[in-house]
Amino acid sequence: MRNKIKQYRTQLDLTQEQLAEKVQVSSRTIISLEKGKYKPSIMLAYRLSLLFDCRIEDLFQLKENLALEES
Amino acid sequence: MKIYSYRHFITGIFFTIIGISTIWTTNLTFTDTFDWLELGKSLFFIICSFLIAGYQFYITFSKKGLKEHDLEEKDERNQLIDKSVDAMIGKIAYNMIFVLSLLFIILWAIFKIGTLLWIGAAFSILYTMLLFISFAVIVYYEKKL
Fold first, then answer.
1. What is the third-level CATH fold of A5-70?
2. How far apart are CA B107 and CA A41, in angstroms?
3. Is the pLDDT assigned to residue A58 strictly greater than 90?
4. Residues B13 and B63 reside in one and the same domain
5. Which residues of B touch A21 (CB under 8 A)?
6. Residue A21 and residue B75: Cβ atoms within 8 Å?
7. pLDDT-based confidence at residue B18 (cuts at 50, 70, 90)
8. The HTH cro/C1-type domain covers which part of the protein (chain A) (predicted)?
9. What is the pLDDT of residue B37?
10. Count of structural domains within chain B
11. Could A29 and B75 be called an inter-chain contact, meaning their C-beta atoms sit closer than 8 Å?
């Protein structure tokens, strides 16, 4: 699943460990999310979008992911 | 030193006692090969017990360690991995029981040894029980989710 977590994280100048601590997950989860391997729960998606102050649809690239799913 | 988690402190003491009691009960005379196997088994238990106890004491006395441990325990990806592992193990055990029950019944049909039939029957009963349990679990989750 594509997302912009890395982009938003670097904008806030956070390390993966710092981001993990802020959203209460392990840093391996953040690594996996950034690689697009792991699909987060809705609550984690909410926590991330709240932290980055953006919409979930933008953070998790809704249109691109829907197009990927349909193809 | 401050104790941050009594639960982990008690677990640490428990594993220390297991380790010490394993050392205490290991009585070797080295008269045959089985003594070396016994030594290997005991050493494995002793090392594992002290490693677990050491980790439990680390998170008992370290605030940072406890925080990391809690985070790892609550992490949703870790929980998903644990559930997937459990499901996979369950599936493998389920299929193995089915194969074993068939195998023992076939062996009984070939060799006509009563014990083989009893073992096959035991596996078949276990398989049937698991089948009913899985139906019950499906019904439970159909209602819950």
1. 434 Repressor (Amino-terminal Domain) (1.10.260)
2. 49
3. yes
4. yes
5. 71
6. no
7. very high
8. 5-59
9. 81
10. 2
11. yes
Any CB–CB contact under 8 A between B74 and chain A? yes
Position B127 pLDDT exceeds 70: yes
Reply yes or no on whether the pLDDT at B22 is more than 80: yes
Domain span at B40: 6-74
* Residues whose CB falls within 8 Å of the CB of residue A18, separated by 6 or more in sequence, listed in order: none
Q: Mind listing the pLDDT tens digit for each residue in A5-55? A: 999 999 999 999 999 999 999 999 999 999 999 999 999 999 999 999 999
Whether B76 sits inside 8 A of A32 (CB atoms) is: no
Q: Which two tokens stand for residue B134?
A: 């899985």
Domain boundary among B57, B74, B91: B74
Q: Across the A/B interface, how many CB contacts are shorter than 8 Å?
A: 24
Give chain A positions within 8 Å (CB) of B78: 26, 29
CB contact under 8 A, B77 and A26: yes
Residues B80 and B139 occupy one common structural domain: yes
H/E element, A41 = none
Domain match, B86 and B133 both? yes
- Mean pLDDT along residues A55-59: 94
